[in-house]
Design brief:
The chain is an alpha/beta fold. The chain has 8 helices and 10 strands. 33% of the residues are buried.
Length: 265
């Protein structure tokens, strides 16, 4: 049984001028401890999907289940279920008037956790990403890559079971992005979290994921899903030059390209 599932999920946004159908009949599943990416053209509803899972927005119809608890547009998610999730946005959104340590303490305050009791865990996470010496610095005093690392471990402070990441490295330069991708793989292996990863970068999706959902748009639908299997080889940057890696990328890019061309009226 899947740890997370979406069954016949639809989402529409109603404005004064029109009704926008963002998602149509979405059926997805995510197994416990699995790393799954969602890719597709802009406007296909990738970000909407993880906001629905986190109950930031409600589905128009259909159901979502997390760890056996099902919710929909009339039955809200419980606080216990929300606590199982960590959410990483496209930018770290660190509060500039708070130190790095104080930014990391925010989720604990939201969940009414004992800050002092969790201080060793915060210290561990800072050391884990090599930023312990910056704990008392302010966001303006660290680089973009460092800020994104802080954004990642802030989502881990309350020990979630599920990590949802909305293009977290999209604004970074290629070298920093590759470094953080490898660090993310290490985090996934060390924690066993279920990770749902949104990206426009096909190589990134292939490198990180066990499965990839490819979506079409207008409205957003699941075009297909693809298993990514490297036969037990370690997922490092060296894989990028391998023929099977390149073939996965080509197949996904062709699907996205065909989707985009088919939507030209």
């Amino acid at each position: 049984m899947a740890y997370i599932s979406l069954e016949h999920v639809n989402k529409k946004f109603v404005t004064r001028r029109s009704t926008i159908y963002a998602l149509k009949d979405i059926n997805m599943h995510f197994n416990k401890g699995e790393f799954v990416s969602i890719v597709g053209p802009s406007g296909c509803g990738k970000s909407t999907i993880i906001r629905l899972i986190d109950d930031i927005i409600k589905p128009s119809s259909g159901t979502i289940t997390v760890d056996g608890f099902t919710y929909n547009n009339t039955r809200p998610i419980t606080k216990d279920q929300i606590r199982k999730m960590g959410f990483i946005f496209q930018v770290p959104n660190l509060y500039p008037w708070l130190t790095i340590r104080e930014n990391l303490e925010l989720p604990l305050k939201i969940y009414h956790e004992d800050i002092e009791k969790n201080t060793p865990h915060i210290e561990f996470l800072l050391d884990y990403v090599g930023l312990k010496e910056y704990a008392d610095s302010y966001p303006s005093e660290i680089s973009g890559g460092m800020s994104q690392r802080i954004g990642v471990i802030r989502g881990m402070v309350h020990n979630p079971d599920v990590f949802m990441m909305d293009e977290p490295f999209g604004a970074l330069d290629e070298d920093t992005r590759e470094t953080l991708n490898i660090e993310l793989l290490k985090i996934w292996k060390d924690t066993g979290m279920t990770i749902i990863f949104i990206t426009h970068n096909v190589e990134e999706a292939v490198l990180l994921s066990q499965r990839v959902y490819i979506m079409s748009s207008h409205p957003g639908q699941v075009k297909t899903e693809m298993n990514i299997d490297f036969g037990g080889r370690e997922r490092t940057l060296d894989l990028i030059t391998e023929p099977d890696f390149q073939q996965y990328c080509t197949d996904i890019e062709n699907l996205i390209g065909n989707i985009s061309l088919s939507e030209i009226k």
